[in-house]
């Protein structure tokens, strides 16, 4: 797992090898079992943040009718920020659940600040990573809301093809904003077109 972190640091920083090793030695890596909740909707938000090294985490909420609405799936090399510093005293609007056994880098906003003070290049890395993720999220959101359900499905097939095999159909359908039956019809239609 630490090799993946080294690769990631090489991509976004110019830290020397010794500094990279020191950062990795300070990082907390934890394993979470499938079904573990990182945070539940309605719980007090905390200062934790995560980086997925291995596994899949689902972000969802219950609507007023009690339906689970999937907001996102986080997989390898994606960061999960449970709250921002100004939201720590609020209650979470989402539940974050491990859909698979997961290996995550675990940090909190305070220890992150200490790491930035110790390794200024790490702050640059985080900023670059967040800028890239924000741009991607903005582009994905814009494309998503302008698309039909079928186009959304095709977009996920192009951008995150492994996701379809990793998550339950009903959760994936919720993520697309459709019913599981509609997803089945889309998949069947696309299969018939490609045959």
UniProtKB/TrEMBL annotation:
Lineage: Bacteria, Bacillati, Bacillota, Bacilli, Bacillales
Residue stretches making up the Cyclic nucleotide-binding domain: 11-131
UniProt cross-references to InterPro entries, sorted A to Z: cNMP-bd_dom (IPR000595), cNMP-bd_dom_sf (IPR018490), RmlC-like_jellyroll (IPR014710)
Gene3D superfamilies: Jelly Rolls
Keyword Transcription regulation: no
Domain of life: Bacteria
UniProt protein name: Crp/Fnr family transcriptional regulator
Keyword vocabulary terms for this entry: Activator
Glycoprotein found in the keyword field: no
């Amino acid at each position: 797992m630490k090799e993946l972190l080294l690769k990631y640091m090489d991509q976004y920083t110019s830290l020397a090898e010794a500094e990279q090793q020191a950062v990795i030695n300070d990082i907390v890596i934890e394993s979470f079992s499938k079904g573990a909740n990182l945070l539940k909707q309605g719980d007090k938000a905390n200062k934790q943040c995560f980086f997925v090294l291995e596994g899949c985490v689902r972000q969802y909420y219950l609507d007023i009718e009690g339906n689970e609405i999937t907001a996102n799936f986080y997989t390898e090399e994606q960061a999960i920020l449970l709250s921002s510093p100004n939201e720590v005293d609020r209650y979470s609007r989402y539940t974050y659940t491990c859909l698979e056994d997961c290996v995550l880098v675990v940090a909190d906003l305070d220890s992150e600040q200490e790491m930035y003070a110790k390794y200024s290049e790490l702050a640059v890395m985080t900023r670059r990573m967040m800028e890239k993720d924000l741009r991607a999220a903005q582009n994905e959101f814009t494309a998503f809301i302008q698309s039909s359900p079928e186009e959304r499905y095709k977009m996920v097939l192009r951008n995150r093809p492994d996701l379809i095999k990793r998550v339950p159909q009903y959760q994936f359908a919720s993520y697309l904003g459709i019913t599981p039956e509609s997803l089945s019809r889309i998949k069947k239609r696309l299969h018939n077109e490609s045959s």
